[in-house]
Amino acid sequence: MPELDTGNNAWILTSAALVLLMTPGLALFYGGLTRAKSVINMMMKCLVAIGIVSIVWTLVGESIAVGSGDGNPIFSMDVSSAFGLRYVTELGTVDGGVSAGAMSAFGMMFAIITVALIAGAVADRMKFSAWVVFATAWVVLVYAPVAYWVWGGGWIEELGVLDFAGGTAVHANAGAAALGLALVVGRRIGWKDGNFAPHNLPLVVIGAGLLWFGWFGFNAGSAFVSDAIAGLALLNTQVATAAAILAWLLIDRIRGIKPSVLGACSGVIAGLVAITPAAGLVTPIGAIFIGLVAGLICPLAIGLKHKLGYDDSLDVVGLHMVAGIWGSIAVGLFAFGDVTGGTSGVFYGGDFSFLLNQTIAVVAVVAYSFVVALVIGLILKFTMGVRISEEEELAGIDAAQHGEAGYDLPVNGNIGVDAPVVAGESEKVNA
Predict the structure, then answer these.
(1) Hey, is 66 helix, strand or coil?
(2) Which residues, in sequence order, are CB contacts of 286 under 8 Å at separation 6+?
(3) Regarding predicted confidence, which is higher, 162 or 420?
(4) Within 13 Å of residue 85, how many CA atoms lie on the same side as its CB?
(5) What is the pTM of this model?
(6) Rounded CA gap, 335 and 280, in Å?
(7) 73-93 pLDDT, tens digit each
(8) H or E stretch including 415?
(9) Cellular component per GO (predicted)?
(10) What superfamily would CATH give domain 6-381?
(11) What was the pLDDT predicted at 77?
Protein backbone atom coordinates (compact mmCIF):
# COMPACT_ATOMS: atom_id res chain seq x y z
CA MET A 1 0.00 0.00 0.00
CA PRO A 2 1.50 3.40 -1.00
CA GLU A 3 2.43 5.80 1.75
CA LEU A 4 0.20 8.83 2.16
CA ASP A 5 1.43 11.75 0.04
CA THR A 6 0.11 14.78 1.91
CA GLY A 7 0.57 17.08 -1.10
CA ASN A 8 -1.42 14.88 -3.47
CA ASN A 9 -3.99 14.16 -0.80
CA ALA A 10 -4.46 17.89 -0.15
CA TRP A 11 -4.92 18.48 -3.88
CA ILE A 12 -7.68 15.88 -4.16
CA LEU A 13 -9.40 17.17 -1.02
CA THR A 14 -9.30 20.69 -2.49
CA SER A 15 -10.52 19.45 -5.86
CA ALA A 16 -13.42 17.61 -4.27
CA ALA A 17 -14.48 20.81 -2.51
CA LEU A 18 -14.23 22.74 -5.78
CA VAL A 19 -16.38 20.19 -7.58
CA LEU A 20 -19.02 20.36 -4.84
CA LEU A 21 -19.12 24.15 -5.28
CA MET A 22 -20.16 23.55 -8.88
CA THR A 23 -23.60 22.29 -7.85
CA PRO A 24 -24.65 25.45 -5.93
CA GLY A 25 -23.09 27.34 -8.86
CA LEU A 26 -25.30 25.35 -11.21
CA ALA A 27 -28.31 26.19 -9.02
CA LEU A 28 -27.58 29.90 -9.50
CA PHE A 29 -26.89 29.46 -13.22
CA TYR A 30 -30.06 27.48 -13.85
CA GLY A 31 -32.08 29.64 -11.45
CA GLY A 32 -31.19 32.81 -13.33
CA LEU A 33 -32.08 31.21 -16.65
CA THR A 34 -35.64 30.37 -15.58
CA ARG A 35 -38.57 32.72 -15.03
CA ALA A 36 -38.90 34.40 -11.64
CA LYS A 37 -41.73 32.08 -10.61
CA SER A 38 -39.56 28.98 -11.18
CA VAL A 39 -36.23 29.95 -9.63
CA ILE A 40 -36.79 28.24 -6.26
CA ASN A 41 -37.82 24.95 -7.85
CA MET A 42 -34.79 24.97 -10.13
CA MET A 43 -32.44 25.61 -7.24
CA MET A 44 -34.13 22.96 -5.12
CA LYS A 45 -33.73 20.31 -7.82
CA CYS A 46 -30.00 21.02 -7.87
CA LEU A 47 -29.59 21.16 -4.11
CA VAL A 48 -31.59 18.01 -3.39
CA ALA A 49 -29.27 16.16 -5.79
CA ILE A 50 -26.52 16.75 -3.23
CA GLY A 51 -28.55 14.99 -0.55
CA ILE A 52 -29.76 12.11 -2.72
CA VAL A 53 -26.50 11.28 -4.45
CA SER A 54 -24.31 11.63 -1.36
CA ILE A 55 -26.29 8.90 0.42
CA VAL A 56 -26.80 6.68 -2.64
CA TRP A 57 -23.11 6.94 -3.54
CA THR A 58 -22.13 5.91 -0.03
CA LEU A 59 -24.51 2.96 0.10
CA VAL A 60 -24.19 1.46 -3.39
CA GLY A 61 -23.03 3.98 -5.99
CA GLU A 62 -19.30 3.71 -5.54
CA SER A 63 -19.59 -0.03 -5.08
CA ILE A 64 -21.05 -0.28 -8.59
CA ALA A 65 -18.72 2.32 -10.13
CA VAL A 66 -15.50 0.91 -8.68
CA GLY A 67 -16.42 -2.78 -8.78
CA SER A 68 -14.34 -5.56 -7.33
CA GLY A 69 -11.75 -5.98 -10.05
CA ASP A 70 -13.26 -9.25 -11.30
CA GLY A 71 -12.79 -8.23 -14.94
CA ASN A 72 -16.47 -8.24 -15.92
CA PRO A 73 -16.81 -5.70 -18.77
CA ILE A 74 -20.43 -4.71 -18.08
CA PHE A 75 -21.13 -5.02 -14.37
CA SER A 76 -18.94 -6.13 -11.49
CA MET A 77 -20.27 -9.40 -10.09
CA ASP A 78 -19.36 -8.45 -6.51
CA VAL A 79 -20.63 -4.97 -5.79
CA SER A 80 -20.39 -5.57 -2.04
CA SER A 81 -16.67 -4.78 -2.07
CA ALA A 82 -17.27 -1.06 -1.50
CA PHE A 83 -20.78 -1.19 0.00
CA GLY A 84 -21.19 1.62 2.50
CA LEU A 85 -17.62 2.75 1.79
CA ARG A 86 -16.44 0.39 4.53
CA TYR A 87 -12.90 0.30 3.21
CA VAL A 88 -12.49 4.04 3.86
CA THR A 89 -12.39 3.38 7.60
CA GLU A 90 -9.29 1.25 7.07
CA LEU A 91 -7.48 4.54 6.35
CA GLY A 92 -5.73 3.10 3.34
CA THR A 93 -4.32 4.89 0.30
CA VAL A 94 -4.54 4.40 -3.45
CA ASP A 95 -2.06 5.03 -6.24
CA GLY A 96 -0.46 8.44 -5.86
CA GLY A 97 -0.58 8.23 -2.09
CA VAL A 98 -4.10 9.70 -1.89
CA SER A 99 -6.37 8.52 0.90
CA ALA A 100 -9.31 6.29 0.02
CA GLY A 101 -11.65 8.76 1.73
CA ALA A 102 -10.45 11.65 -0.45
CA MET A 103 -10.89 9.61 -3.63
CA SER A 104 -14.37 8.48 -2.59
CA ALA A 105 -15.40 12.06 -1.88
CA PHE A 106 -14.01 13.21 -5.23
CA GLY A 107 -16.00 10.57 -7.09
CA MET A 108 -19.12 11.43 -5.10
CA MET A 109 -18.95 15.09 -6.18
CA PHE A 110 -18.79 14.00 -9.83
CA ALA A 111 -21.93 11.93 -9.40
CA ILE A 112 -23.74 14.84 -7.72
CA ILE A 113 -23.10 17.39 -10.47
CA THR A 114 -23.94 14.87 -13.20
CA VAL A 115 -27.41 14.26 -11.77
CA ALA A 116 -28.02 17.96 -11.14
CA LEU A 117 -27.24 18.83 -14.77
CA ILE A 118 -30.30 16.90 -15.96
CA ALA A 119 -32.70 19.12 -14.00
CA GLY A 120 -32.32 22.03 -16.40
CA ALA A 121 -34.17 20.21 -19.17
CA VAL A 122 -37.43 20.00 -17.21
CA ALA A 123 -37.56 23.45 -15.61
CA ASP A 124 -40.99 24.98 -14.88
CA ARG A 125 -43.06 21.80 -15.03
CA MET A 126 -41.74 18.60 -13.40
CA LYS A 127 -43.01 17.50 -10.00
CA PHE A 128 -40.38 17.78 -7.30
CA SER A 129 -41.29 14.36 -5.89
CA ALA A 130 -40.92 12.76 -9.32
CA TRP A 131 -37.52 14.43 -9.71
CA VAL A 132 -36.36 12.97 -6.39
CA VAL A 133 -37.32 9.44 -7.48
CA PHE A 134 -35.84 9.89 -10.96
CA ALA A 135 -32.52 11.18 -9.61
CA THR A 136 -32.25 8.26 -7.19
CA ALA A 137 -32.96 5.65 -9.86
CA TRP A 138 -30.80 7.25 -12.54
CA VAL A 139 -27.63 7.53 -10.48
CA VAL A 140 -27.86 3.80 -9.63
CA LEU A 141 -28.97 2.48 -13.01
CA VAL A 142 -27.01 4.78 -15.31
CA TYR A 143 -24.32 6.96 -13.81
CA ALA A 144 -22.64 4.35 -11.60
CA PRO A 145 -22.55 1.62 -14.32
CA VAL A 146 -21.28 4.08 -16.93
CA ALA A 147 -18.56 5.27 -14.52
CA TYR A 148 -17.56 1.61 -14.18
CA TRP A 149 -17.44 1.16 -17.96
CA VAL A 150 -15.31 4.28 -18.46
CA TRP A 151 -13.04 4.37 -15.39
CA GLY A 152 -13.57 1.21 -13.35
CA GLY A 153 -12.24 -1.44 -15.74
CA GLY A 154 -15.39 -1.93 -17.82
CA TRP A 155 -15.71 -2.46 -21.55
CA ILE A 156 -15.08 1.17 -22.54
CA GLU A 157 -11.81 1.33 -20.63
CA GLU A 158 -10.83 -2.04 -22.10
CA LEU A 159 -11.28 -0.56 -25.58
CA GLY A 160 -8.54 1.92 -24.76
CA VAL A 161 -10.94 4.85 -24.72
CA LEU A 162 -9.67 7.94 -22.88
CA ASP A 163 -12.01 10.21 -20.93
CA PHE A 164 -9.87 12.41 -18.74
CA ALA A 165 -12.58 14.00 -16.59
CA GLY A 166 -15.99 12.99 -17.89
CA GLY A 167 -16.99 14.09 -21.39
CA THR A 168 -18.57 10.69 -21.96
CA ALA A 169 -19.30 9.60 -18.39
CA VAL A 170 -20.65 12.96 -17.18
CA HIS A 171 -21.73 15.42 -19.85
CA ALA A 172 -22.86 13.34 -22.82
CA ASN A 173 -24.41 10.96 -20.29
CA ALA A 174 -26.38 13.70 -18.50
CA GLY A 175 -27.37 15.40 -21.75
CA ALA A 176 -28.83 12.21 -23.19
CA ALA A 177 -30.79 11.58 -19.98
CA ALA A 178 -32.06 15.16 -20.11
CA LEU A 179 -33.41 14.57 -23.62
CA GLY A 180 -35.20 11.37 -22.60
CA LEU A 181 -36.74 12.97 -19.52
CA ALA A 182 -37.79 16.12 -21.38
CA LEU A 183 -39.63 14.03 -23.97
CA VAL A 184 -41.56 12.23 -21.24
CA VAL A 185 -42.46 15.37 -19.29
CA GLY A 186 -43.47 17.23 -22.44
CA ARG A 187 -43.36 20.86 -23.51
CA ARG A 188 -44.09 23.83 -21.31
CA ILE A 189 -47.42 25.57 -21.82
CA GLY A 190 -46.97 28.20 -24.52
CA TRP A 191 -43.48 26.96 -25.33
CA LYS A 192 -43.40 27.95 -28.99
CA ASP A 193 -44.62 31.52 -28.58
CA GLY A 194 -44.33 32.21 -24.84
CA ASN A 195 -41.82 34.44 -23.06
CA PHE A 196 -39.27 32.16 -21.42
CA ALA A 197 -36.35 34.57 -21.36
CA PRO A 198 -33.96 34.37 -18.38
CA HIS A 199 -35.29 36.47 -15.52
CA ASN A 200 -31.95 37.33 -13.86
CA LEU A 201 -28.78 37.51 -15.94
CA PRO A 202 -26.57 38.62 -13.03
CA LEU A 203 -27.43 35.30 -11.32
CA VAL A 204 -26.45 33.52 -14.54
CA VAL A 205 -23.05 35.25 -14.56
CA ILE A 206 -22.42 34.43 -10.89
CA GLY A 207 -23.39 30.81 -11.51
CA ALA A 208 -21.20 30.57 -14.60
CA GLY A 209 -18.28 32.04 -12.66
CA LEU A 210 -18.66 29.51 -9.85
CA LEU A 211 -18.92 26.68 -12.37
CA TRP A 212 -15.77 27.88 -14.15
CA PHE A 213 -13.89 28.13 -10.84
CA GLY A 214 -15.06 24.72 -9.67
CA TRP A 215 -14.24 23.19 -13.04
CA PHE A 216 -10.53 23.61 -12.32
CA GLY A 217 -10.99 21.04 -9.56
CA PHE A 218 -13.12 18.93 -11.87
CA ASN A 219 -10.50 18.75 -14.64
CA ALA A 220 -7.15 19.35 -12.98
CA GLY A 221 -8.20 17.20 -10.03
CA SER A 222 -8.75 14.30 -12.42
CA ALA A 223 -4.97 13.96 -12.71
CA PHE A 224 -5.33 12.53 -9.15
CA VAL A 225 -1.92 13.88 -8.23
CA SER A 226 -0.50 17.38 -8.07
CA ASP A 227 1.81 17.06 -11.06
CA ALA A 228 2.53 18.45 -14.53
CA ILE A 229 -0.58 16.82 -16.01
CA ALA A 230 -2.76 18.62 -13.46
CA GLY A 231 -1.15 21.90 -14.49
CA LEU A 232 -1.72 21.12 -18.17
CA ALA A 233 -5.36 20.21 -17.51
CA LEU A 234 -5.96 23.49 -15.67
CA LEU A 235 -4.32 25.53 -18.44
CA ASN A 236 -6.21 23.71 -21.19
CA THR A 237 -9.49 24.25 -19.32
CA GLN A 238 -8.84 27.98 -19.30
CA VAL A 239 -7.85 28.46 -22.95
CA ALA A 240 -10.54 26.17 -24.36
CA THR A 241 -13.21 28.07 -22.45
CA ALA A 242 -11.85 31.42 -23.57
CA ALA A 243 -11.90 30.24 -27.19
CA ALA A 244 -15.47 29.00 -26.86
CA ILE A 245 -16.69 32.37 -25.55
CA LEU A 246 -15.20 34.19 -28.55
CA ALA A 247 -16.50 31.60 -31.02
CA TRP A 248 -20.02 31.79 -29.56
CA LEU A 249 -20.07 35.59 -29.83
CA LEU A 250 -18.73 35.35 -33.39
CA ILE A 251 -21.40 32.91 -34.54
CA ASP A 252 -24.05 35.10 -32.90
CA ARG A 253 -22.69 38.11 -34.77
CA ILE A 254 -22.80 36.22 -38.05
CA ARG A 255 -26.43 35.30 -37.34
CA GLY A 256 -27.29 38.93 -36.64
CA ILE A 257 -27.55 38.54 -32.85
CA LYS A 258 -26.09 41.28 -30.67
CA PRO A 259 -23.24 40.28 -28.33
CA SER A 260 -24.94 39.21 -25.11
CA VAL A 261 -23.96 38.14 -21.63
CA LEU A 262 -26.21 35.09 -22.10
CA GLY A 263 -24.22 34.12 -25.19
CA ALA A 264 -20.92 34.62 -23.38
CA CYS A 265 -22.03 32.51 -20.41
CA SER A 266 -23.31 29.81 -22.75
CA GLY A 267 -19.91 29.85 -24.44
CA VAL A 268 -18.30 29.34 -21.03
CA ILE A 269 -20.30 26.17 -20.46
CA ALA A 270 -19.73 24.87 -24.00
CA GLY A 271 -15.96 25.30 -23.69
CA LEU A 272 -15.77 23.80 -20.21
CA VAL A 273 -17.77 20.75 -21.27
CA ALA A 274 -15.87 20.16 -24.50
CA ILE A 275 -12.42 20.27 -22.91
CA THR A 276 -13.39 18.02 -19.99
CA PRO A 277 -12.60 14.66 -21.65
CA ALA A 278 -9.40 16.04 -23.19
CA ALA A 279 -8.08 18.37 -20.49
CA GLY A 280 -4.94 16.41 -19.58
CA LEU A 281 -4.53 14.70 -22.95
CA VAL A 282 -3.98 17.51 -25.48
CA THR A 283 -1.72 20.47 -26.07
CA PRO A 284 -2.94 24.04 -25.42
CA ILE A 285 -3.30 24.58 -29.18
CA GLY A 286 -5.47 21.48 -29.39
CA ALA A 287 -7.50 22.77 -26.44
CA ILE A 288 -8.09 26.09 -28.17
CA PHE A 289 -9.35 24.32 -31.29
CA ILE A 290 -11.65 22.08 -29.23
CA GLY A 291 -13.10 25.16 -27.52
CA LEU A 292 -13.53 27.03 -30.81
CA VAL A 293 -15.50 24.20 -32.38
CA ALA A 294 -17.68 23.85 -29.28
CA GLY A 295 -18.47 27.57 -29.39
CA LEU A 296 -19.49 27.28 -33.03
CA ILE A 297 -21.59 24.11 -32.97
CA CYS A 298 -23.43 24.43 -29.66
CA PRO A 299 -25.50 27.53 -30.53
CA LEU A 300 -26.49 25.83 -33.77
CA ALA A 301 -27.41 22.65 -31.88
CA ILE A 302 -29.57 24.63 -29.46
CA GLY A 303 -31.54 26.01 -32.38
CA LEU A 304 -32.44 22.49 -33.48
CA LYS A 305 -34.80 21.97 -30.55
CA HIS A 306 -37.30 24.33 -32.12
CA LYS A 307 -37.12 22.52 -35.43
CA LEU A 308 -37.32 19.06 -33.84
CA GLY A 309 -40.03 20.09 -31.38
CA TYR A 310 -38.61 19.01 -28.02
CA ASP A 311 -38.58 21.40 -25.05
CA ASP A 312 -35.18 21.29 -23.37
CA SER A 313 -35.79 24.28 -21.10
CA LEU A 314 -32.22 25.30 -20.30
CA ASP A 315 -30.40 23.67 -23.23
CA VAL A 316 -28.82 20.75 -21.43
CA VAL A 317 -28.87 18.77 -24.68
CA GLY A 318 -27.41 21.51 -26.87
CA LEU A 319 -24.65 22.30 -24.38
CA HIS A 320 -23.77 19.19 -22.40
CA MET A 321 -24.65 16.36 -24.76
CA VAL A 322 -23.38 18.03 -27.93
CA ALA A 323 -20.22 19.51 -26.41
CA GLY A 324 -19.59 16.28 -24.47
CA ILE A 325 -19.84 14.20 -27.64
CA TRP A 326 -17.58 16.60 -29.54
CA GLY A 327 -14.97 16.69 -26.77
CA SER A 328 -14.92 12.90 -26.46
CA ILE A 329 -14.46 12.45 -30.20
CA ALA A 330 -11.88 15.26 -30.28
CA VAL A 331 -9.63 13.20 -27.99
CA GLY A 332 -9.31 10.79 -30.91
CA LEU A 333 -8.12 13.69 -33.05
CA PHE A 334 -5.93 15.75 -30.72
CA ALA A 335 -4.54 13.37 -28.06
CA PHE A 336 -0.81 14.01 -27.69
CA GLY A 337 1.24 10.91 -27.06
CA ASP A 338 3.81 12.64 -24.85
CA VAL A 339 1.14 13.37 -22.22
CA THR A 340 -1.13 10.35 -22.70
CA GLY A 341 1.63 7.80 -22.26
CA GLY A 342 1.82 6.89 -25.92
CA THR A 343 -1.71 7.08 -27.32
CA SER A 344 -1.93 9.70 -30.07
CA GLY A 345 -4.86 11.19 -31.91
CA VAL A 346 -5.20 11.12 -35.69
CA PHE A 347 -3.69 14.61 -36.07
CA TYR A 348 -0.57 13.44 -34.23
CA GLY A 349 -0.03 10.25 -36.19
CA GLY A 350 -2.42 8.05 -34.24
CA ASP A 351 -4.48 5.17 -35.52
CA PHE A 352 -8.01 5.76 -36.83
CA SER A 353 -9.14 2.83 -34.68
CA PHE A 354 -8.59 5.00 -31.60
CA LEU A 355 -10.85 7.70 -33.04
CA LEU A 356 -13.42 5.03 -33.90
CA ASN A 357 -13.37 3.62 -30.37
CA GLN A 358 -13.82 7.09 -28.88
CA THR A 359 -16.87 7.56 -31.10
CA ILE A 360 -18.33 4.13 -30.34
CA ALA A 361 -18.01 4.70 -26.60
CA VAL A 362 -19.73 8.08 -26.47
CA VAL A 363 -22.53 7.00 -28.83
CA ALA A 364 -23.14 3.85 -26.75
CA VAL A 365 -23.33 5.84 -23.50
CA VAL A 366 -25.69 8.39 -25.07
CA ALA A 367 -27.97 5.64 -26.32
CA TYR A 368 -27.96 3.75 -23.00
CA SER A 369 -28.59 6.84 -20.90
CA PHE A 370 -31.36 8.10 -23.19
CA VAL A 371 -33.23 4.79 -23.19
CA VAL A 372 -32.98 4.19 -19.44
CA ALA A 373 -33.98 7.78 -18.61
CA LEU A 374 -36.93 7.43 -20.97
CA VAL A 375 -38.02 4.19 -19.31
CA ILE A 376 -37.65 5.60 -15.78
CA GLY A 377 -39.60 8.67 -16.81
CA LEU A 378 -42.41 6.63 -18.37
CA ILE A 379 -42.72 4.43 -15.27
CA LEU A 380 -43.01 7.54 -13.12
CA LYS A 381 -45.48 9.12 -15.55
CA PHE A 382 -47.88 6.21 -15.32
CA THR A 383 -47.53 5.73 -11.57
CA MET A 384 -46.95 8.87 -9.49
CA GLY A 385 -47.07 11.33 -12.40
CA VAL A 386 -44.22 13.57 -13.53
CA ARG A 387 -45.88 16.88 -14.28
CA ILE A 388 -47.62 19.55 -12.23
CA SER A 389 -51.13 20.66 -13.21
CA GLU A 390 -51.79 23.29 -15.85
CA GLU A 391 -53.07 25.70 -13.20
CA GLU A 392 -49.92 25.23 -11.10
CA GLU A 393 -47.68 25.72 -14.11
CA LEU A 394 -49.39 28.97 -15.09
CA ALA A 395 -49.36 30.29 -11.55
CA GLY A 396 -45.77 29.24 -10.93
CA ILE A 397 -44.11 26.01 -9.82
CA ASP A 398 -42.39 27.66 -6.84
CA ALA A 399 -45.58 28.41 -4.96
CA ALA A 400 -47.24 25.13 -5.98
CA GLN A 401 -44.36 22.80 -5.09
CA HIS A 402 -42.47 24.66 -2.36
CA GLY A 403 -44.69 27.37 -0.90
CA GLU A 404 -41.93 29.89 -1.47
CA ALA A 405 -41.08 32.68 -3.87
CA GLY A 406 -37.69 33.79 -5.05
CA TYR A 407 -38.76 37.42 -4.81
CA ASP A 408 -41.50 39.39 -3.08
CA LEU A 409 -43.40 40.42 -6.19
CA PRO A 410 -46.67 42.34 -6.03
CA VAL A 411 -49.64 40.40 -7.34
CA ASN A 412 -53.03 42.17 -7.36
CA GLY A 413 -51.70 44.63 -4.83
CA ASN A 414 -50.53 41.96 -2.39
CA ILE A 415 -47.04 40.86 -1.46
CA GLY A 416 -45.70 37.34 -0.95
CA VAL A 417 -46.26 33.75 -1.89
CA ASP A 418 -49.62 33.42 -0.15
CA ALA A 419 -51.22 36.21 -2.16
CA PRO A 420 -54.10 35.16 -4.41
CA VAL A 421 -52.85 34.40 -7.90
CA VAL A 422 -54.58 35.06 -11.18
CA ALA A 423 -52.89 33.17 -13.99
CA GLY A 424 -52.86 36.06 -16.45
CA GLU A 425 -51.53 38.53 -13.89
CA SER A 426 -48.90 36.02 -12.74
CA GLU A 427 -47.67 35.68 -16.30
CA LYS A 428 -47.27 39.47 -16.58
CA VAL A 429 -45.38 39.78 -13.31
CA ASN A 430 -43.23 36.66 -13.39
CA ALA A 431 -42.55 36.10 -17.07
Answers:
(1) helix
(2) 236, 278, 330, 334, 336, 345, 347
(3) 162
(4) 20
(5) 0.93
(6) 9
(7) 888 766 666 677 777 776 667
(8) strand 414-415
(9) plasma membrane
(10) Ammonium transporter AmtB like domains (1.10.3430.10)
(11) 61
